[in-house]
Amino acid sequence: MKIMSKALLALAFCAVAIFCMSSFYVKEEWVPLLDKDMSKWEVYLSYRHKKGYNGDLPRHEDGRIVEPIGYNKDVSNVFSMVDEKGEPVLKVSGEIYGCVFTKQEFENYHLKLKVRWGDKKWVPRMAKLKDSGVLYHSIGESGVDYWRAWMLSQEFQVMEGHMGDYWTIANSAMDVRAYIPEGDMNTVASTRQPFLPLGAGTDLSGFCLRSEDHESPAGEWTEIELVCFKDKSLHIVNGHVVMVLQNSRYIGSDGKAVPLTRGRLQLQSEAAEVYYKDIKIKSLEALPNKYASYFNK
Hints:
Number of strands: 19
CATH superfamily: Exo-inulinase, domain 1
Shape: globular
Structural class: mainly beta
Radius of gyration: 22 Å
Oligomer: single chain
């Protein structure tokens, strides 16, 4: 019986070891987030915004507040899946402000996706650059921002000629590091600047331009990457780091800063036609060495 017990114990140990190894392996694998049924996403639509909108809640003539379209009511097929050479591609018409957002929250991850512009634009961006965005660390209800369309979050800007800019959404804030992106890492390290606070609770508005323009030519796919670990994040465009950020937070109702390090992902509909594909994510156990150096003093 003792021999049998030892054998069973050894077998159980091996099973646990294999399970742990497989669990660890899965964490290191890229997980696709986009399929033909959009099974990992939900929808929120705001309003058909008009030219001259000033951020106020839209109202009827009698003063009543206009209700937004709301959750999972894609009345105009703003978000649809199309097949492109056998690949599932998310088409965002842009006709109504809103977003698709993941059902799951994420923390400590590396996100990759590809984006390409369509041809159409809508009011109020007819004479402006095409615009969209990847919003991360998204929490709470939708519609709390200026456009009444998105959750409190941080933004990886997706805009013509501004791929990788940083924007705050609602009352979020972050610290951005500026540097001269020339030469090798040793050169970059010698020209880095201190982190500068932007957004809610600071003296500066919540946006910052990316360091360089690495967007692909018109009509081609641009690969963008978002690396988030603890309070830090990096915006990467076609393999180039264009934004270095840390101390992700938001300002609570009591006026105090609250860490903002996990949440859902949102893809914006913002009055421009845009396509997304190859959306995938991988968990991080630590900030990769190739990126950690961007945060050294």
